[in-house]
Structures are given as C-alpha cells and as structure tokens.
Amino acid sequence: MHAEISFIGLFWQASLLVKLVMMTLMGMSVVSWALIIQRSKAIKAANLASEQFEDRFWSGVDLNRLYQESSSRRDDIEGMEDIFYSGFKEYARLLKAGARGQDAVMDGTYRAMRVSLSRAVDELESNLPVLATIGSISPYIGLFGTVWGIMNAFIALGQVQQATLQMVAPGIAEALIATAMGLFAAIPAVIFYNRFTNKVERLENAYANFMDEFTTILNRQIAQQGEK
C-alpha cells in the first residue's frame, strides 16, 4: 500500500495527460530556480558595482581621470558607471563641437544618460517576466491536471458496482499531486519575482539620483567656465 501511494508510484499510475502536466510543472520549476539563481547573482553584482563606483565618484577624483579609467575598460562597465561614461562622453563631445548654450549641452548629456539608464534597467529586468509567467500559470496547469485526474477517477468508479475508498484514493491522490506541484513551482517564482522587482526599483532610483547629481555637477562646471 505504501508503494502504491508514493510519489513515484502515483506518477507511473497516472494517466498520460496528468503525467505530461507533472513533467511540465517540474520543468517550469527547474527553469524558475535557474532564473532565480541567475538573477540573484546579476542583481547582487549590480548593487556591488554601483556601491564601488559611487564611492570612487564621491572620493574627489578628477572627472576626466575617472572617465579615462572607465573608457579603458569600456566593455566591462555597467549600471551607474556606464551612465557616467555615456553622460561625460556626450558632455565632452558637445563642448568640443561648440554646442550653443548651456541648456543644449545639458539636454544632450541628460538624454545620453537616460538611454544608458534604460539599457541598464532592461538588463536587470531580463527574464523577470518569465518568473512572473511561471508564478501566474503554474497553479492553473496543476489544477487542470487535478481536475482531469479526479474526473478519470470518478469515471472509473462509475464502472464498478461496489465502490470503496481504496479504489478511488490512488486516483484522487495522483490528481492532487498535480496541484501540489503547481504550487511548488509558483510560490518561489512569485516570491522572488516580487523581491527582484523591488531590488530593481531601488537600483533604478539610485541610478536616477546619480544622474541628477551628476547633471548638477556638470551644470556647475559649465557655469564656472562661462564666468571665466
């Protein structure tokens, strides 16, 4: 009896459709955890890189020197440092080209940083919609398997003259496992999707605040140059 109601035993006794539902949910769970691990590492690295660059930026280092450092490893920079690089590059280019007016220079600089900000946020949000999808549809897929399994159990029950609990229990158990697997896939996906979304929003706010502060510094530099 124990062997019959074990997970493996119930899986092999399940109908083909319920087996497909279970395997689909297992695959979605594996994909979900792979994305959770990958996004955890990516967001943690982005946080660390931002903290390190911000410490360097506010250490009083010359902006031209900081730009040269970022330029020397252009392919490796991301997030806040990439925003700084894009903004300072456009700022220097506009000044060298003799852009007319302080507003024109600052508008072009801000637009360049805005593009880098959007690119950084898109990278941080990569694959989060997949987690959201898994969290949303997994319970329904599991419920479909459950409904199908219970339906088959009662159809089989109706074909015998004397029904017993022992006859119907395995069919109902295998059906309920589909719902359990759906929840098993959905719950971590929803939890980590919400967690990652919150962390991405915090990083985006940090990037936006840096953009405003950096714009103020560049604006002050232009004003000082105009006074000379």
TrEMBL record:
Specify the MotA/TolQ/ExbB proton channel domain's residue ranges: 81-207
Name the InterPro entries for this protein.
Answer: ExbB/TolQ_transport, MotA_ExbB_proton_chnl, Tol-Pal_TolQ
Record flagged with keyword Methyltransferase: no
User: Which species is this record about?
Assistant: Aeromonas lusitana
Q: What is this protein called?
A: Tol-Pal system protein TolQ
Q: Does the keyword Magnesium apply?
A: no
Q: Which domain of life is it from?
A: Bacteria
One Pfam family name is MotA_ExbB
